Amino acid sequence: MDQVLAEEEELLVAKCEDWLKERNPADYTLVHERFRRLRNLGKAVFDYPSIKDTKFVRDILLNENQLTESLLFFSTASHLLRIPAKVAALRSFLVAKFHAFSLLSKLTAENLELNTPVRTISFSVVYTLMAENVYFSCLDDPGFSSNTKSKLAHDLIALWDSGTDQRSIRHLFALSSLWAARESAPPAFGTMDGNTELLRISIDMGSETEWEDFLKEESTNDRTRWALEEFLFGLSYEEILQIRARLKRHGITSVSHDEVRSYLDSKPVYSIVDDHDPRAIYDFFIERRDACTLRKRVNAPGPLHTLEEIYLKYRIILEAS
């Protein structure tokens, strides 16, 4: 792989550097050096052989079921020292790429023409990291056919080889729309039924007809509803139950945005989400994913998957059907 960044990314970086060079030479030098290091890191990462050519994967590629099970092995943090070096290196490269474009985003904040596509790339890196988690979730889902899992396994390997997820590119707009809608519709809490937040998000999703179909099909699924409430309110399933119980116990009809945190006896489980910061989006996703993992482990009630996982899996099933 000769080119670390995509052609359009390189063109954008060049435009930003030209603008910074005239505006602030020190900022230009900072950006130029940061991206030089990023390219050097990328060249080292992509110099590793294809995941398909590593002994671990090559020996099991003939058995698709075994391939799926083996890739799931890479999803556990405790197996870090057992995964192919390229997988670990690629994750580091994506983090470095995020930081490089985040720096560029801060320095081009006054130039909307440059800043908008730079921020889009930052968000796309976050969604790529999230996509890896979604792939693992799909491979572990008994609801997916062996044929679909096989395709997803090869897509995941392609992501590790290239640093780009071709499948999620097709669904990137859906995730972006979902988060943009959430940003424009912060939780009002009120009666804690979530209807106001859901309505506003659905309106802002606009032409995303698959979102409307998703809601219709999943409306009676408790686990989807619980995951949706966590996403809407920014609170854990357990915290939502706690607040609703307090409202009922004291005969309170609604709670304000400023009051809701005071209703919790301990520190909130999830961080306060700053929707303008892609890192916060990823943090919120990982915190909810980890909470889901814990519920599975101890067989506790509540959502077992994040809303993003459930929604993307729904779209993947539609695509495969």
Overview of the structural elements:
With 321 residues, the protein is an all-alpha fold. Helices cover 70% and strands 0% of the residues. Helix 6 crosses helix 7, helix 6 packs across helix 8 and helix 6 packs across helix 15. The longest helix has 28 residues. The radius of gyration is 21 Å and the shape is globular. It starts with 6 loop residues before the first helix and ends with a helix. The mean pLDDT is 83.
Question: Short description, anyone?
Answer:
The protein is mostly helical and 321 residues long. Helix content is 70%, strand content 0%. The model has no long low-confidence stretch (mean pLDDT 83).
Write the layout of secondary structure elements.
Elements: H1 7-23, H2 25-46, H3 55-58, H4 64-72, H5 85-107, H6 112-139, H7 146-162, H8 166-184, H9 195-205, H10 209-218, H11 222-233, H12 237-249, H13 257-260, H14 278-298, H15 307-320
Helix pairs in contact: 1-2, 1-6, 2-5, 4-7, 5-6, 6-7, 6-8, 6-14, 6-15, 8-9
What are the defining features of this structure?
mainly alpha, 15 helices
The number of E-state strands comes to 0
Give the helix tally: 15
C-alpha Rg (nearest Å): 21 Å
Taken from the alpha-carbon principal axes, the silhouette is globular
Low-confidence stretches: none
**On the 0-100 scale, what is the average pLDDT?**
83
Tell me the strand percentage band: under 5%
User: Portion of residues in helices?
Assistant: 55-70%
* Largest beta-sheet details: none
- Helix-strand makeup class: mainly alpha
What is the H/E string?
Answer: HHHHHHHHHHHHHHH
Distance between the termini: 33 Å
